[in-house]
Amino acid sequence: MTSLRAGFLGALLLVIAGLGAGPASAPDTPASARFTNRELVGQRLVYSFKGTTPPDALLARIRQGRAAGVVLFKSNLRSPSQARSLAGRLQSAARQAPKRVRHPLLIMTDQEGGQVRRLDGAPERSAAQIGATGKPSVAFRAGRDAGRLLGCAGINVDLAPVIDVGRSGGAIDQFERAFGSTPNLVAAMGSAFVRGLHAGRTLATAKHFPGFGAAKANTDDAKVTIDLSARTLRRVDERPYRAAIKQGVDLVMLSSAVYPSLDPKWPAALSRRVVAGELRRRHHFRGVTVTDALDTPGLAGYGTAAQRAVRAVKVGDDLLLYSGNAGDFADGVKAERNLLKALRTKQLRRTELLPGARRVLKLRRLLR
Asked: What is the distance of C-alpha 2 from the center of its chain?
């Protein structure tokens, strides 16, 4: 652990509203055996909702320890002050959860910069504009300013930076979401952005593993297949992730695209070869994994959104994110029901849920 990282963690423990740093695997404890099935499932779910007022049913789930986090979109946010009030209400509910799962809620949003910002403000420049400077110090300041803005809004997880290596004409490139088209530049800029978010007391999420820069379409719209060789993926697209992991990135988001050279059958987020093999074993990532939206059109043909939750747990995803096309709370509810049913019918074992739940709780504890 670098001295900067250690200093960040030390400061974090003194911040009441705190925002965090990267988790490590937690040892088994007697408390873990006392989790109810609903609590155990809840530690794996990230919900969304429409409007600026959280549904009573969501607040009830949070109070009962049945939610790990909430993802907020532009429609949920009007200003930093309104966002902070909303976040305060969500965290108030989290403080009423049973003691064994009574930790700050993960409150997430996409604050990448440029066109992809949920709150007006930093970073105003896009990743492409930041990358064009060639200066990691610029990326650091962008991440730091984004972290400070989110902190003022009560948001503790930035679903950024995008560290996909851009390709001309690609979906990422079209919206200036890539720092550049070479792995070394993207690695340097992405790692600096991560450091900046940490300096701004905000958790960082590297996305979309194993790399989405070659995609011609967005998985929000359609199924995407990326026909790059495993050699190219590992030498080019995964290189920035190695750098971000060494930098101590807190979360890694899995792509919803299919990578036939790594797994011809399953999208990355639903692939044991990608999650457990490429990310965990090859790159030694010990933090929290999070899916891209499991209710996205890009995953059509792989069961219902709720059924995908079971597969995601089995392959090693820690957090299962449901955006509901930016706010359908019902999708997360259906996923919870399907996971509980899988436990009752022995399709899923508690031992398959426990490791990810421990990693998530470790991350949440750091937010105190």
From this structure: 23
Surface-to-core class of residue 31, CB atoms within 10 Å of its CB (0-12 exposed, 13-18 middle, 19+ buried): exposed
Is-contact 216 163, C-beta < 8 A? Answer: no
Of 291, 278, 295, 195, the C-alpha closest to 230 is 278
Which DSSP symbol is given to 221? T
- CA-only gyration radius of the chain, Å: 19
Phi and psi (nearest 5°) for 276?
Answer: -80, -35
Indicate the pTM of the whole model: 0.90
Stretch among 27-36, 99-108, 191-200 having the lowest mean pLDDT: 27-36
The identity of residue 307, as a single letter, is: Q
**Could you read off the pLDDT of 232-243 as tens digits, one per residue?**
999 999 999 999
Domain boundaries, the chain: 36-365
Per residue in 197-215, pLDDT tens?
999 999 999 999 999 999 9
Between CA 13 and CA 252 the distance in angstroms is 23
Q: Would you identify the CATH topology of the domain 36-365?
A: TIM Barrel (3.20.20)
Residue 325: predicted pLDDT: 64
DSSP state of 368: -
DSSP 3-state assignment of 266?
Answer: coil
